[in-house]
Amino acid sequence: MMTRLCCEVLSRLKGKTLVTAESLTGGGIGAALTAIPGSSAVYKGGIISYTNWVKANLLDVPEEILETKGAVSEPTARAMAAGVRKRLEADVSVAVTGLAGPDGDEFGNPVGTVFIACETSQESKVLRCLFSGDREQVRQQTIQSALKLVLACTEDLKS
User: Alpha-carbon distance 39 to 22, whole Å?
Assistant: First the structure.
């Protein structure tokens, strides 16, 4: 399933570029994409933004959002997607931020809460998910959902 999703994303984005901003997945989306031969024609790279410092300083997520809404929030995911697309100069970006465990956060988000954002020059979409399972299962579900959101967000790019 993962290979098929990656191939669909890479095929859909042929002639375009894709970048990632990953928190809880720690580079898992990039790893899945780069497992496909020829992925460098589309996938430029990503930023692993595991800490708020990286989110603020490399992805330009406003400190106010991180302080008032938290790292695991729709505005943070949206800002991460915008920040990585601008910083790495790409046509499409996908960003993920969430809680894979063992604990929830101070904003009341339980383990399994994930926000996924996709941005193109035409639109920005954010998906809120509540996944179940252990840490690795939450991470894998996030990667799959992020790839599916890229497909949904780039529907108009079909050849």
Answer: 18
Question: Residue 18 CA to chain centroid, in angstroms?
Answer: 11
Residue 21, φ and ψ in degrees, nearest 5: -125, 115
Determine the length of the chain: 159
Torsion over CA: 9, 10, 15, 19 (sign): positive
Tell me the two tokens of residue 92. Answer: 């499409």
118: helix, strand or coil:
strand
Those residues whose C-beta lies under 8 Å from the C-beta of residue 11, and which sit 6 or more positions away, are none
Do 125 and 153 contact (CB within 8 A), yes or no?
yes
In this predicted model, what pLDDT tens digit does every residue of 53-99 receive, in sequence order? 999 999 999 999 999 999 999 999 999 999 999 999 999 999 999 99
